[in-house]
Design goal:
This protein is an alpha+beta fold. It has one domain. It contains four helices and eleven strands. The protein has a nine-stranded antiparallel sheet, covered by helices on one side. Strands 3-4 form a two-stranded antiparallel sheet. Helix 1 crosses helix 2 and helix 2 packs antiparallel against helix 3. The longest helix has 22 residues. InterPro entries: CHP04255 (IPR026349). It comes from Polaromonas vacuolata. This is TIGR04255 family protein.
Length: about 260
């Protein structure tokens, strides 16, 4: 059942695949397929990454700065889009509805990439959700989060807190064991994003455009599987649904009945 005031303010689904060194040569054709599906905005993005090449004998080689290109393919209203690199495709949105609208988009994007470059395998599938816990007037964050998730309290004014739990999960059908990382950030600050998760090219939903410092929490759930997976789109769909089921269980274990009532 869809929550009428769902706290999801950013969601991302990602697939990593065998590297395609010549991806730049194929981007125009991939973009044209997605353009006809409604993703009409297109831009490239240069990112500097620190890379360790490996070891020379027993001595690690010096790290090198490398320029990596991502291609951003988004809807004209900037509510959702794709991030393509030479070895991955992500679908992300700041206007999440339900899994029924969200999960098929990554598969659709993967089908477009595979049609053009003929992928050999998938190496990683993952889902990540950010939920904003923003108390109403007269409420506190503690009313929304299950016990023990607000950090240590002993009378002093808390600036921020973070908790992290890592779980081994049962998934399927392509990979039977997954990893779920559940983090809770509590702070009195502007609502933001983790430094490794920026919604490039997208606009936030209006109710999450908060320009004032306020006490809030962010629920950050990351569920993924790794391994050599065949290009079987029906099984990829099932694997993504399995990952979503784990995210849902984590969400339900994190919130209180009060939160469920408010967001319902």
């Amino acid at each position: 059942m869809k929550m009428t005031k769902a706290p999801v303010y950013y969601a991302l689904a990602q697939a990593q695949f065998n590297p395609v060194a010549a991806m730049a040569k194929y981007v125009d054709e991939i973009q044209d397929i997605l353009r006809r599906e409604g993703y009409t905005l297109f831009e490239s993005q240069e990112i500097t990454q620190l890379q360790f090449a490996g070891f020379a004998g027993q001595v690690p080689t010096k790290p090198e700065l490398m320029q990596v290109t991502n291609w951003i393919i988004s809807k004209s209203d900037r509510t959702a889009g794709f991030i393509l690199s030479s070895s991955s495709l992500a679908f992300h949105t700041t206007h999440y509805e339900t899994r029924n609208e969200f999960l098929p988009e990554l598969v659709q994007g993967l089908q477009a990439v595979h049609k053009v470059v003929s992928l050999e395998h998938i190496a990683r599938l993952g889902l990540r959700y950010l939920d904003a816990v923003i108390p109403g007037e007269g409420e506190t964050v503690s009313q929304y989060l299950a016990g023990g998730l607000q950090g240590v309290s002993f009378g002093a004014k808390q600036r921020y807190s973070m908790s992290e739990s890592v779980f081994e999960t049962e998934t399927g059908p392509l990979v039977k064991s997954g990893t779920l990382v559940a983090r809770i950030y509590c702070a009195t600050a502007l609502l933001g994003y983790p430094p490794d998760l920026i919604p490039h090219g997208l606009q936030p939903m209006s109710r999450f455009q908060i320009n004032d410092v306020a006490s809030h929490a962010v629920m950050d759930a990351d569920h993924f599987v790794e391994g050599t997976m065949p290009i079987d789109f029906e099984q990829i769909k099932q694997q993504m649904a399995s990952l979503h089921a784990g995210i849902k269980q984590s969400f339900e274990a994190t919130i209180t009945p009060h939160a469920e009532e408010v967001w319902r």
